[in-house]
Amino acid sequence: MSRHVFWGGVHPPGQKHLSAERPIELLPIPARLYLPLQQHAGGPALPVVTVGQRVSKGELLAKAQSATSAPLHAPTSGTIAAIGEFTAPHPSGLPMATITLEADGADQWIEREPSPDPFDLEPAEVARRVGAAGIVGMGGANFPSAVKLDKARQAKVHTLVINGAECEPYMSCDDRLMRERAAEIADGVAIMLHAVQAARAVIAIEDNKPEALQTMRDACRVDERMEVRSLPSRYPAGSAKQLIQWLTGLETPAGGRGTDTGLLVHNVGTAYAVHRALRYGQPLISRIVTVSGGAVAEPRNLEAPIGALAADLLAYCGGVDTDCTRLLMGGPMMGQPLPCAETPVVKGTNGILALTAAELGEQRSPEPCIRCGRCVEACPMGLLPVEMANSARQEDWSGIQALKLNDCMACGSCAYACPSRIPLLQYFAFARSQLAEQRRQESKAQHIRQLMEQRQARFAREERVKAEAAAQRRAAKQSRVVVTADDDDDD
Amino acid sequence: MNPATFANIPHAHSQDSVPKLMGRVLLALLPATLYGVVLFGWPAFNLLAVTVLACLLGEAVCLWLAGRSVRLGMLDGSALLTGMLLALSLPPWAPWWIGAIGGAFAIVVGKGVFGGTGQNVFNPAMLARVMLLVSFPVQMTTWLDPHPWLSGSAPSFLEGLQVTFGHWAATDGVTGPTILGHIRTELGMNHALSQSVPGHYQSALAAVGWTGGSLGETAEILILLGGLWLLWRRAITWQIPVAMLVTVLLLASGFHWANPERFADPLLHLLSGSLMLGAFFIATDPVTSPLAPVGQIVFGIGCGALVYIIRTWGGYPEGIAFAVVLMNAATPLIDHYFRPRIYGRTWRGESRPIEKKSDEN
After folding, report:
1. Distance from C-alpha of A101 to C-alpha of A309, rounded to nearest angstrom
2. What span, in angstroms and rounded, lies between the C-alpha atoms of B226 and B28?
């Protein structure tokens, strides 16, 4: 494969030194875990436990409601304390249906059958087991992994790309995972290759992680189907579309799927979770989370149970300084602001950041656009962010669609680069919500029109039926009359 | 702790700001400006000061009328830059009112009426220069031979004030035509270039700027260095300057090769007039040039071609201001037709199918 480039992108300061040298530590199980039923793309999971029920570690708490959904398992043993609403990791701060589990401290595993050799299983069975383990994209996309594996096998994908780019600043969880558990990741990759029936795997790692590159190279040496590639450190190198472009020069067609290019992208964390699920029958009940930021006393990489609160992780890392001005779940480029520290870690949580005012930099209000074109240069999708923002401001909804707002993946490169601090992403979000509303109104109007037409058709039908009946009656009557009239004539 | 909201995404920003970008351009202009002031003495300094002050005053009035923060608006440095660029494109011994009218016109008519910074269609400095050239052709074409500071022929401070603010009639002893003007006159008299140019022009002197011309346009090498520094600091992109210079170079080479007695050689074109200044500092004005790299190349080619056409066949010896203003007018059109290709789409915006490659496994 020759070298290719991906367009645009920005170079935000990495800040990985804060946590990258801290080995993964196990977070002690908190007293209570909060498990939102929707931690994945698709329908929320359906609870199969009741309040007060005792559960073991790894026991199914909620099942997948449809093909595109994911089950939820108990991260530790204990008692179901509540099934109700709790603050979800979402910028709205709105509560979401959540199972609350009170840990008993025993951390008692459920009885597990010994796992068969995954390579003896049918590929579809491997994917099914991945799905049953509740594994979703660990890079933050949260898409159920089993669905991706099945679709990729059907699409005859030839290359599995394992994403170890970790291009978001501060994040070091994938870096640590690769450095410390490279062999497990490589095994997970081999299992996924089997599930997809792909010929080879490329593990792509940004060149700012030399140790991870080395350990992964060593671990993959045993399998000649696997190749480790060093990516240039440039945000958003870890975006699937950009990764595919960099590796092959191919582009995911607009409106198409990544697998159209013959490649399937999965995160390193996902490969690790697949290893655990297929080798040990362990569902996805914990993940590595980077706790970092200038306001964290001791930044660390923690292996935390799903459902632990951000506050638990921060407390383990020495607490948050008073100069913390922003709390994030995820990195500074695409991370979600947290409404409060009492928000649970979910399957897609790669980091908890507590940032100081100094780290956030000077806060300025937007200045006039000088059309410098930095946003155009930075956009990895080749869009015109400034024009899209102008269209949004003028509420020109057809114009913004013509500029292909739908192709924007909200990576934030444009807003990062803008010297005037124009809130580009907010303009786009506004436009998206307006367009969605428009579509809703349109479909509603269409629905109403349809109902009206049906009603009128029904009326017309009834009229016709009535008219026909009347006509028949009249005809019958008339024929009688005619008959009598004839009689009269005869007279 | 303030609750963070969606309004903050992304949570990281580059350190760049509009004042920083403008500051870099000003800094890159500084060597050429100092050189111009040294070369043409106190009158040049006076003119520079008057022009810049007129721009700042105009900006303050516009901001105040628009109800914006005068302090913040002034701090972005754009008015200062406009003043500098306008002054650098004026004849160095022009009277004060040329600078004052030009500066005020640049900011008020060139920018303020459009809605201020970022909204103007035309490069304000070049718009003002065109207005001045059309309205005051005598003052705008009285060029000066170099009179370097501290040399015998340099005017003293008081004489300098007299030149800028008093009544001063240009005498032949201190003035002379620029090389481009000279060529135009000589060609008008049907003199071949091989006879008219050599006595009047040496490219080495032109390169270091030891020649008559506008205040800040003569020091081609200093301007080129400033421009390269801007490229290195990423304050400008390469597309416009490279496209513009290469276009002039190619056109000049072609015509000169065809008829060297009628068309000046490419080096003369590159090293004379305000081509360097125009290519690196004027045409690259972000507000009035296209957004996308493809469009910027088209814009640069257009500027270069117009410059050569005006210089060679037009009514004026130099055409940077006209070329830039004309291409500014074409910028919205260029922006409309020359857009980057979108990822996963064809140039026409349709979904781009994957081409099957045989060399991939």
Report:
1. 12
2. 4
**pLDDT at residue A1 greater than cutoff 50:** no
CATH homologous superfamily of A17-28+116-288: NADH-ubiquinone oxidoreductase 51kDa subunit (3.40.50.11540)
| Higher pLDDT among residues B167 and A302, named by residue | A302
Give the CA radius of gyration of chain B.
Answer: 22
> Taking CB atoms and an 8 Å limit, are B11 and A333 in contact across chains?
yes
pLDDT, residue A2, reads: 47
Q: How far is CA A328 from the centre of its chain?
A: 17
Q: Is A19 helix (H, G, I), strand (E, B) or coil?
A: coil
Whole-structure pTM value = 0.87
Cβ–Cβ below 8 Å for B14 and A404: no
The predicted model gives A397-409 an average pLDDT of 92
The confidence score (pLDDT) of residue A11 equals: 92
Q: How far is CA B219 from CA B38, B139, B186, B265, in A?
A: 11, 22, 24, 19
Q: How far is B231 from chain A (nearest CA, A)?
A: 14
pLDDT per residue over A106-148, tens digit each? 899 998 888 889 999 999 999 999 999 999 998 877 889 999 9
Say whether A382 and B341 touch across the interface (CB within 8 A): yes
Residue of A241, A333, A404 lying closest to B10 (CB–CB): A333
Structure tokens at B338: 């020359």
Q: Look at B345 and A254 and tell me if their CB atoms are within 8 Å.
A: yes
A54-110: per-residue pLDDT in tens? 999 999 999 998 888 899 999 999 999 999 888 887 766 788 899 999 999 889 999
The residue assigned the tokens 């009656």 is A473
- Closest chain A CA to residue B11: A332
CA pair distance A254, A251, nearest whole angstrom: 9
Domain boundaries of chain B, sorted by first residue: 18-337
Average pLDDT of chain A to the nearest whole number: 90
CB-CB contact of A43 with A16 (8 Å): no
Residues of B in contact with A326 (CB under 8 A): 1-2, 4, 8, 11
* CA-based R_g, chain A, Å: 29
| Residue recorded with tokens 């297929």 | A278
Q: Kindly tell me if the per-residue pLDDT of A423 is higher than 70.
A: yes
Beta bridge partners of A204: A163, A229
A245, A333, A367: which to substitute to probe chain B, counting the most B Cβ within 10 Å?
A: A367
Q: Evaluate the CA torsion angle B190, B195, B201, B204 in order and state its sign.
A: positive
Q: Whole-angstrom Cα distance, residue A446 to residue A451?
A: 9
Low-confidence ranges of chain B (pLDDT < 50): 1-4, 172, 358-361
Q: Which of A287, A270, A113 is nearest to A192 (CA)?
A: A270
Domain boundaries, chain A: 17-28+116-288, 366-482
